[in-house]
Every structure is written in C-alpha cells, then in structure tokens.
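Possible regression after last week's pipeline update?

I re-ran a chain I had predicted before the update to compare outputs. Posting the input and the new output here so someone can diff against the archived version. Not blocking, just want to make sure nothing changed silently.
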Amino acid sequence: MTYKTILVQCDAAKNVGRRLDVAAELAQQQGAHLVALHARQPFQTPAFFDGGFPMDDFFKSYEASANADLATATAAFEKATKGRHLSTELRVVDGFIDSELTTHARYADLLVLGQTDPENTLPTPADLPEAVALASGRPVLVVPYIGVTTSPGKTVMLCWNASRESAHAATAALPLLKTAAKVIVLAIDAKSSPAGHGAEPGADVATWLARHGVKVTVQRDVAADADVGATILSRAADHAVDLIVMGLYGHSRMREMVLGGASRTLLASMTVPVLMVH
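New output (post-update):
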C-alpha cells in the first residue's frame, strides 16, 4: 500500500515553500502523483461600497491581486519540484479554499496543509486544517508553519487510544509506518475494557502493525491532570519524533469547530508534522 495521489495546498503564503517541499519529498518517496491546488477566492463587493467609486476599479484591484498570488504560488511550486522525478500538476480553481480542498481531497490519498500561521495575511480560514480533515474524511498531514528540519517519516509516534478515530489514523498512515525506521505506539491513561484496550494496552495494535512489517515499540504513559496534547508533544521531543499520527476528535456544525483537547493542543503548538484523520 502506497499513496498514489498527494494533494497539497498551494497558496501565496510566505511559508508555502515549506509545505510544498514536504509534499514533494513524500510524493517522490511514494511514487505518487503530486497535485498542487491553488484556489482563487471569488470577487466580493466591498462591504463599504456605496457607488461612489466605479466597480471596475475594485475588480481590477482584485484581479491584479489574484494574478500576483497565482504567480507567487506557481513559482513556489516550480521551485519545490525542480529536479525531482515526479508526476506533477498545478490545479487552479475558482472558489473558497476550504470547500475546494475538501472536494478535491476526496480524490486523493493524502492531503498536505500548512498549520495556521498567526501572521498570515491571506483570507485563509483559521480552522482550515481541522475543517478539511473533518469534512473530507481523508488523512491530512499538517506541516508546522515554522517548517521542518528533517523529512517526516523516519521516527513516527502513533497516538493510540483504541478508538475508531485512532484506528482510522493508523490505517491511513500505513504507507509511512511501514517505511519508518522506528514507530512508537503511545498509549496515555490507557485502561483495559471489553470495547477498547486489551489486557496490555497497545499490545494488540503493535501485533497488527508488526504483521505489516512495521518496526514498533509500545510506550504507556500517564497524563494525570496534565493536558494530553502537551504530554504527546513532550514525548515526541523525548524520542526525536519527526511525525505524529493521531485521530481527530470532534465535529463541525455551522462552521463552529468542536475539537478534543489533544487535537486542539497539537494544532496550535505542533513542532513536527501531524497526520490526522477523523
């Protein structure tokens, strides 16, 4: 099992090259077709428009900005893929980035997005990564806006709580888990139950992964009163993890995101890429 199509968000953000580099490297490793999606947000009449200025002036300004953004995105994509032996495609669509990514992600095996950057000046929804992950049903690899120091996938941490979401995440990440040098199954505050963990939390999933040829170890931990997300990040730092895999917990109702605490912490404070699946 490998990823055959990887979709990456390709906008005019100042750090877009960081996520494009990760996506291109993964596509090369997996032998995947790489699709960079650039969405041109539709023209909207300014809220303050009172007819005092010609509408054509507003549209020309919008068009110039949209063309400049496309040129920036195109240059970044060409730079990230130059010299690589890849099947690539730059796909330009008209629409809002969250809905377009959600739709196009359904025809890809993996989606690569950037972590929300507090200094971003583009009209990108602050909840884009979680919104797309929840709506698309596809695995989403979120790249920290500060970038990465090494290509993700050598030392991987799988956050396991025996839930449907963590099972989906483990399955979606198999192409990366199978090629990793080390996979750590992290079970936090795990308790045995008929519908969850077995007698030895983490042992069942480790056995399943081993049958796929994954080099796996199990670590059980206790968060106690601490934030589970903070514990995950701490253990990731302890083991020099370069990729975290976890289930995404929550739902979206009328664009109001409701997430689990660990998901919220990792999306806000990630220091390495996080692959999440709902």
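Follow-up from reviewer: compared with the archived run. The radius of gyration is 20 Å. Marking as no regression found.
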